[in-house]
Amino acid sequence: VAYGGDDFSYRSVAISQSSFQIDAGPGSYRIRVPIGGTNLVLATNLGGLQFPSPPWILNLADLKNAATNEPLSIRFNAGANSDEFVQVFLTRRPNGEFVYGSPYRGAAGALNGSSNQVMLPTGFLAACSEYDVTLARWIVSPHDVQGASLVSMLGSETVAVLKTAGCNNPQILSAAYASGQFSLTATAAFDGVFVLEKSTDLTNWSALSTNPVGKSFGLSFGSTNPAAFFRLIQAN
User: Fold this and answer.
1) pLDDT tier for residue 32 given thresholds of 50, 70 and 90
2) Between β-strands 28-35 and 181-192, what pairing exists: parallel, antiparallel or unpaired?
3) DSSP letter string over 6-33?
């Protein structure tokens, strides 16, 4: 509610149209706003409000190994009408660090309901990283009530995981155990330092051997207990 230069807001979250109707179904509403010891009472009707159709990411496969040295297009289905607007947010896993957000409704470059893609500029994505992409579509309904401006917003959102290219994950080419000796050969996309680790429960891991810097290498060590799990990871 905007009145006399002051803004007031109320937010109610529902996960479905039915739960929204239970919380704030169609009908007449009276809104009381305390101002300087007096109450401003507004009356409005919120009948017929509906959630917008959910946005669906159409090129999800492009988000599984995205390049970091070029812009990334995220394509989605268009809304029902241009009065809706779309926002895209990008947060980095696992700490939720905010990375990117498309402009808000009314700002330059904002996405309206007929938009069907957003372009992430180069420089926002780090190599070998994971991000949560939140795609939200909103229906905004303005109400002019007794000289005050009231805006109702209903939204639907989709969240997907974006993974960037550039990981130098090693690939084990061969592994063998004979006469108390475990050995393997491996390769990677480019030079790196890798650690061979061992575990008996897939939870606790201990380092056994580290390769010289390179992208093709072999590792071996003595072991009297072959009943174990092994993994090869890139050193930090």
Assistant:
1) low
2) unpaired
3) EE-------SSHHHHHHHH-SSEEEEEE
- Can you list the alpha helix ranges (DSSP code H) found in the chain? 17-24
**Cβ neighbours for 223, distance < 8 A, ≥ 6 positions apart:** 177, 180, 181, 182, 198
Prediction pTM value? 0.60
pLDDT band at 2 (very low <50, low <70, confident <90, very high): very low
Distance between CA atoms of residues 195 and 236, nearest Å: 10
At 171 the three-state DSSP class reads strand
Residue 139 near residue 50 (C-beta atoms within 8 A): yes
Instruction: With beta carbons less than 8 A apart as the criterion, state whether 162 and 199 touch.
Output: no
Say which residues have a Cβ less than 8 Å from residue 222's Cβ, sequence separation at least 6. Answer: 180, 181, 182
Three-state DSSP class for 62? helix
